[in-house]
Write a structure and sequence with these properties.
The chain is an alpha+beta fold. It has helices at about 30-45, 55-65, and strands spanning about 5-10, 20-25, 50, 70, 80. The strands form two sheets. Strands 4-3-5 form a three-stranded mixed β-sheet, with helices on one face. The protein has a two-stranded antiparallel ribbon with strand order 1-2. A hairpin with a 5-residue loop joins strand 1 (about 5-10) and strand 2 (about 20-25). Helix 1 (about 30-45) crosses helix 2 (about 55-65). The protein is globular and about 45 Å long. The N and C termini lie far apart (about 50 Å).
């Protein structure tokens, strides 16, 4: 049998509510742009974005001009903080 591997993207706010979810074939800059574009158009610009250390998040955030709000850390939960 042939299996197709898919990546599941999920954006969560500081309370743990799922804001957006998205399935893609890859975890690259293009997929991160698609997820962030949906999120930013629906909820506006966040005060902070906490992610894992995947490089494609930083590349996508740099395209939007909000790279300075990007935080990564071993013990931080992945979340988006809206003010």
């Amino acid at each position: 049998m042939r299996s197709n591997h898919r990546e599941f993207w999920r954006d969560i706010d500081q309370e743990g509510t799922v804001l957006e979810s998205f399935v893609s074939k890859r975890r690259d800059r293009r997929a991160a742009l698609k997820v962030l574009r949906k999120l930013l158009s629906k909820y506006g610009s966040p005060a902070a974005i906490v992610t894992d250390k995947l490089v494609s998040y930083g590349a996508a955030l740099q395209d939007f001009g909000i790279r300075h709000r990007h935080e990564t850390g071993q013990y931080q939960q992945a979340k988006t903080v809206f003010s």
